[in-house]
């Protein structure tokens, strides 16, 4: 089955990337650095290779966690984790990912390879990186296997879904004064660096005690003295609320300007909270309170399976945007979450034990099956979409080439005079 219907392929030629970046840090600090850094790359390097290199770096970071703590044994206040120097590599790796993710578009313009394929490739890698960084950041914050880690996954994926939803309805990407791809990533880099210096237990300190504000009676009597990592999670929740409001304002303005409905787009947000509720129901296993997913080595695979499912969902949203197709309200990957949630709650729904997850071992096996299916499904999506786009537009994915009118592959590099003007 093709993901792009034949009648929608023509929309690929009409696609044009549009973006608004209001970040002061991005415009005045990082962008000059990115503009210089892209010149270090030869013009024969395809922009998607740069994007893929960034993803490879963060996947290596994830692999290093798997090496030092293969079963994710460290829980809050629990076992000793990896050596502190490893957190520095995570911070450096994430900063390199941000840099490479920022310059791939610049490289595309240098090589004449800008287009819808780059949009799909870039956002696909971003979707995968989102879950990887949730796992690593929660580990560095000493949250361990907990509902706080699950909550951070919810908030992070929600922001990504919101941004994709906003782009679909406005036709462009908005980066606010404080955005996830810029300030959010740098905040996580800072977390990794602090953890490298002081260790994960640093984040268990009470925030008022650490800041010495507990000595200020007016503050101490009104503000709860929460752990620093818990306070960070609450801050992330407030940030999500702010992003929801600002994203809808942008959609409202764009839809009103185009004469379209301003309330209907809100309905397209519903699939995400529904999927969150399904995952909560699945995690809240009523018959295995002491051996549920959160308290087992299956917790990280559970998050990864959800991350791959999510990448498939937003991938189809982005594909609908660049091909001018209807917004996808349903994705086949939801089926596995529905099955997991219903089976886990069979005692409540039907008064009988789960058919599949009736013991901890089966629960873990089922989670790994869902992870495998999600991986294969998303890999298939990536291969088919890349094949459809490259074949229709006559371009290559990982090399700087295009097909001429006779179907012969030729370099897509602009003339040297054009390169000098970049």
TrEMBL record:
Segments passing through the bilayer: 44-65, 173-198, 232-254, 266-283, 298-320, 332-350, 366-386
Protein name: diacylglycerol cholinephosphotransferase
Pathway: Phospholipid metabolism; phosphatidylcholine biosynthesis; phosphatidylcholine from phosphocholine: step 2/2
Any one GO molecular-function label of the UniProt entry: diacylglycerol cholinephosphotransferase activity
Catalytic activities: CDP-N,N-dimethylethanolamine + a 1,2-diacyl-sn-glycerol = a 1,2-diacyl-sn-glycero-3-phospho-N,N-dimethylethanolamine + CMP + H(+)
Enzyme class: transferase
Membrane topology, from the record: Multi-pass membrane protein
Keyword Transmembrane helix (UniProt): yes
Residues spanning the signal sequence: none
Keywords of the record: Membrane, Transferase, Transmembrane, Transmembrane helix
GO cellular component: endomembrane system; membrane
Native source species: Lactarius akahatsu
Major place of residence: membrane
């Amino acid at each position: 089955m093709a993901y792009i219907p034949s009648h929608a392929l023509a929309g690929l030629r009409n696609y044009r990337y549009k973006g608004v970046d209001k970040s002061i840090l991005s415009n005045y600090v990082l962008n000059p650095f990115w503009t210089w850094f892209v010149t270090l790359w030869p013009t024969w390097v395809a922009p998607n290779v740069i994007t893929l290199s960034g993803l490879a770096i963060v996947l290596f970071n994830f692999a290093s966690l798997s090496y030092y703590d293969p079963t994710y044994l460290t829980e809050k206040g629990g076992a000793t984790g990896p050596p502190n120097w490893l957190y520095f590599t995570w911070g450096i790796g994430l900063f390199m990912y941000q840099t490479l993710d920022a310059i791939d578009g610049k490289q595309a313009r240098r090589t004449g390879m800008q287009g819808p394929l780059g949009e799909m490739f870039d956002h696909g890698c971003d979707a995968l990186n989102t879950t990887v960084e949730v796992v690593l950041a929660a580990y560095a914050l000493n949250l361990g296997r907990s509902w706080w880690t699950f909550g951070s996954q919810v908030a992070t994926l929600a922001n990504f879904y919101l941004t994709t939803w906003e782009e679909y309805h406005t036709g462009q990407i908005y980066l606010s004064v404080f955005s996830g791809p810029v300030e959010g990533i740098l905040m996580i880099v800072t977390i990794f660096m602090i953890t490298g210096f002081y260790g994960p237990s640093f984040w268990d300190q009470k925030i008022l005690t650490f800041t010495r504000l507990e000595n200020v009676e007016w503050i101490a009597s009104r503000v709860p003295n929460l752990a620093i990592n818990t306070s960070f999670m609450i801050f992330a929740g407030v940030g999500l609320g702010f992003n929801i409001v600002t994203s809808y304002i942008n959609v409202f303005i764009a839809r009103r300007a185009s004469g379209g409905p301003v309330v209907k787009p809100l309905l397209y947000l519903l699939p995400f909270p529904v999927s969150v509720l399904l995952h909560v129901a699945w995690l809240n296993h009523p018959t295995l309170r002491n051996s549920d997913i959160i308290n087992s080595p299956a917790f990280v695979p559970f998050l990864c399976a959800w991350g791959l499912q999510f990448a498939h969902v937003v991938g189809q949203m982005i594909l609908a945007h660049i091909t001018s197709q209807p917004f996808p309200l349903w994705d086949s990957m939801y089926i596995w979450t529905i099955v997991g949630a219903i089976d886990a709650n069979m005692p409540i729904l039907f008064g009988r034990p789960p058919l599949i997850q009736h013991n901890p071992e089966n629960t873990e096996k089922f989670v790994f099956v869902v992870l495998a299916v999600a991986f294969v499904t998303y890999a298939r999506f990536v291969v088919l979409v890349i094949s459809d786009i490259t074949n229709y537009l006559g371009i290559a994915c990982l090399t700087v080439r295009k097909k001429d009118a006779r179907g012969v592959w030729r370099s897509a590099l602009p003339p040297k005079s054009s390169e000098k003007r970049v």
